[in-house]
Amino acid sequence: MANQAHYPVRTLCRVLGVSASGFYAWRCRPPSARAMNNAVLTERIRQIHAESDETYGMPRVRAELRDQGMAVSRKRVARLMRKEGLQGVSRRRAYIVTTRRDERQRPAPDLVQRRFQSDSPDALWVADMTYGTPSQRSLHAWGEAA
Predict the structure, then answer these.
(1) Is the pLDDT of residue 9 over 50?
(2) Domain boundaries, position 62
(3) C-alpha to C-alpha distance for 104 and 133, rounded to whole angstroms
(4) What is the reported pTM?
């Protein structure tokens, strides 16, 4: 215990509301069955994660454990992975920034001059381009300004 160098054990036990004899009994007690199972499971999780080139997250690690015949909950796997600092790789890509422009070039001229209303049909056309993931990218809307 790190604080034993600064404070007596009896004072620490009194502040925490436990008996000194209980503290010493706890210190000499062997690890519980659950703690030992967690240590074994953590090592297996670490091995599966390493075999996947550190790409597997909780769902795939748990699927591997289940394929090997180990029944374990998703929350337990997630907790042990979080405790060990293990994370999977997300398939999601960062969104595309479309507003960057070359500072050395002039911006495109505003031919409409922010007037989006036309006097007659087919006189003014505008477009709205919406970007998303590659499967979602499309030319969103074409149409005549009212």
Answers:
(1) yes
(2) 32-91
(3) 29
(4) 0.54
